[in-house]
Amino acid sequence: MSHVFHRHLKQRYPTAVSGEGPYLIDADGRRYLDACGGAAVSCLGHSDAEVVEAIREQVGRLAYAHSSFFTTEPMEALADFLVERAPEGLSSVYFVSGGSEAVEAALKLARQYFVERGETERRHLIARRQSYHGNTLGALATGGNAWRRRQFEPLLVEVTHVSPCYAYRGQAPGETPEAYGERLAQELEAEIQRLGPQTVMAFVAEPVVGATLGAVPAVPGYFKRVREICDRHGILLILDEVMCGMGRTGSLFAAEQEGVSPDLVTIAKGLGAGYQPIGATLVSERIRAAIAEGSGFFQHGHTYIGHATACAAALAVQRTIESRDLLSRVRTLGEGLQGRLEDRFGEHPHVGDIRGRGLFRGLELVADRDGKTPFAPERKLHAAIKRTAMDHGLMCYPMGGTIDGQRGDHILLAPPFILEESHLDEIVDKLDATLKSVLGH
Ligand code: PMP
């Protein structure tokens, strides 16, 4: 019996023993094409020599120094790298070990910012339904995913939720994307008025929704309107780019494609590409300055803040992506993947929508296309697809429909940026074989 407390205690997992570019290899020698980067993590594949060497070099010199005693060269260099390329106004980086921690730090930074300014009544957070921002309690409270929250309620942080920007299901027949975006902006405005604008601290959203909806970008103009509304009421805009950031959608930050400058941005997954656990919160100058000129101390911290080896790994990952011009590859391969998915599944009776940006693509599965009826959650389609895809040597990231029945199952694809065109064919072929086995089509 395994002594590891696995998440699925009734499931047996193959043992991953090595990696080779976009493939993972198990103890029986089976190869799996990693079409989801785990959970949109492994953007450089699994054995990048430059990154491995950078880690070796750093760990041999200095693996770790506690951030309350020292700063380190890799931490400073990584912060410089990110700020130089970040949306306007973001001027510093708070390093943590993963996505949930980055979200927690963003929430506490937002709160402390208002406390430093004497606006202590600003405590409400607004996020969106069917969203995921992490599993620690603050991040879980922020997320609007009923299935993940249900058994832990009541949650510690009070958050209210507005509708996500989810055109496939939310946009009314005959409604233009612009009108749909405006309707959602009005919903946010109404929620702010209901709570009292002077009591609202921040609005939190993913620019392209990953785990809960499956690579769903907002309609054009939505985030611009959100930014305007936040500005009008002095509310901070927190963009969660844990999954969609670090080049996944074809630009280093997904917010660039929305033309907005957020106050706080969370990143993780693709930052270290799985070579080391690392996340970060990018902080705008006005928040940094309010805290620096006020108490001068962010009342928060973890043992592994700015871990030297993790920062060295992330810096090597990001420099490699830049020096090999992999973001333009993400854009080209992304179009190639979308085209192939549409060719193969565009008429599929159970594929309702194919969407996404860059190498971040989602297929929504429905029982019938015309009614967009989701499959019954009890069918646990996502589990069958994941298992069957693995049998076909493919890793993809399917998620189940919610208990509130407001969306269908989806399959998320987030492959490494280093793919060859032939891997796109392999992904689509293996996905096709998987759907045929599970759905009969
Ligand atoms: N935010 C988003 C948007 C995510 O997708 C995730 C992870 N799926 C998290 C936060 C939490 O990140 P982690 O699992 O690294 O704690």
Automatic annotation (TrEMBL):
- A Pfam family hit: Aminotran_3
Q: Which cofactor does it need?
A: pyridoxal 5'-phosphate
Its domain of life reads Bacteria
Q: Which GO terms describe its molecular function?
A: pyridoxal phosphate binding; transaminase activity
Record's keyword annotation contains Transferase: yes
Name its species.
Halomonas organivorans
Q: What is this protein called?
A: Aspartate aminotransferase family protein
Q: Which Gene3D superfamilies match?
A: Aspartate Aminotransferase, domain 1 (3.90.1150.10), Type I PLP-dependent aspartate aminotransferase-like (Major domain) (3.40.640.10)
By sequence similarity, the record places it as follows: Belongs to the class-III pyridoxal-phosphate-dependent aminotransferase family.
| An example Gene Ontology CC term for this record | cytosol
Q: Which UniProt keywords apply?
A: Aminotransferase, Pyridoxal phosphate, Transferase
Keyword Transferase (UniProt): yes
